[in-house]
Amino acid sequence: MELTWHGHSTWNVTVGDTTLLVDPFFDNPHTEFDPLDIESPEYLLLTHAHADHIADVGSFTDATVVTTPELAGYVEDEHGVTETIGMNIGGTVECDDAFVTMHRADHTNGAMTDYEHSMGEPTGFLISDAEPTPNSTDSATTFYHAGDTALMTEMRDVIGPYLSPDAAALPIGDHFTMGPWQAAIATEWLGVDHVFPMHYDTFPPIEIDVSKFETAVESSESDARTVVLDGDEMFSL
Fold first, then answer.
1. Is the pTM above the cut of 0.85?
2. CB-side exposure of 16: number of CA atoms within 13 Å?
3. Measured at the alpha carbon of residue 16, what is the angle toward residues 40 and 222, in degrees to the nearest 5?
4. Residues 174-179: contacts with CB within 8 Å, 24+ apart?
5. What DSSP string describes 6-55?
6. How far is it, in rounded angstroms, from Cα 83 to Cα 70?
7. What CATH number is associated with residue 33?
8. Angle, nearest 10°, between helix axes 211-218 and 180-190?
9. What pairing do the DSSP bridges indicate for beta strands 194-198 and 167-171?
10. Which residues lie closer than 8 Å to 224 by C-beta, 6 or more apart?
11. Less Cβ around it within 10 Å: N or C end of the chain?
12. What's the distance, Cα to Cα, between the start and end of the chain in Å?
């Protein structure tokens, strides 16, 4: 599995011959890429409807969008998307070589930050090379994109012990999501081997010294390696 961070919460994930792009938003200071520079993915995964997560959906209309039914309908109407898979929290869908499991995130979800029009629950995704079952999670390789979220006990009680992610991308920018200290607790609860900070330094309210997160993880009970990627940098999991 190959993971490329394009800044903010935008990740390009390759599983076998399948490419999945999560939360396309290229107007951020950590990427030098334009959406047109990205080879069109087979699948586009959307965690929620805020503008800094779906702004560039219209550049990838050949992809199949995987998201909640409410947001699937919205991007069909507003962004010219024709192929969608509407799923909901707790479900798993097969996306060619990848299995995508949706989990909730603690956040808000107005369309393009218009809070008069809710897009259902905000979410995160677990992307795996095997279907999650009691017998497969130990041998599978699984990446958890937590979306925009606060610290939540489901990380400790469900996602970590039962879905067994090997790596997690966690928001650390504070203000709109959890900050470094709570993200370090999430790292501990999830039991991952690798953790990647995301959703920081994009706007003034979420500018942060990323070393605070590294220090918090080192001071926790977690054995995870904190991997701070440069924008557009790839990591092989």
1. yes
2. 12
3. 105
4. 174/206, 174/208, 175/205, 175/206, 176/107, 176/148, 176/205, 176/206, 177/107, 177/148, 177/149, 177/150, 177/206, 178/149, 178/150, 178/151, 179/208
5. -STT-EEEEETTEEEEES----STT----GGGSPPPSEEE-S---HHHHT
6. 14
7. 3.60.15.10
8. 40
9. parallel
10. 187, 188, 192, 193, 194, 195, 217
11. C
12. 5
Domain region containing 28? 2-236
* Residues 203, 209, 215, 220, Cα dihedral to 10°: -20
**Burial of 132 by CB count in 10 Å (0-12 exposed, 13-18 middle, 19+ buried)?**
middle
Structure token digits, residue 210: 């990323």
- Once rounded to an integer, what is the mean pLDDT over residues 155-177? 97
Report residue 133 as tokens. Answer: 């079952």
Find where tokens 């200290």 sit: 181
| Alpha helices per DSSP H over the chain | 51-54, 69-79, 154, 180-190, 211-218
Phi-psi region for residue 191, left (φ > 0), alpha (ψ -120 to 50) or beta? left
Task: Provide the domain count of the chain.
Answer: 1
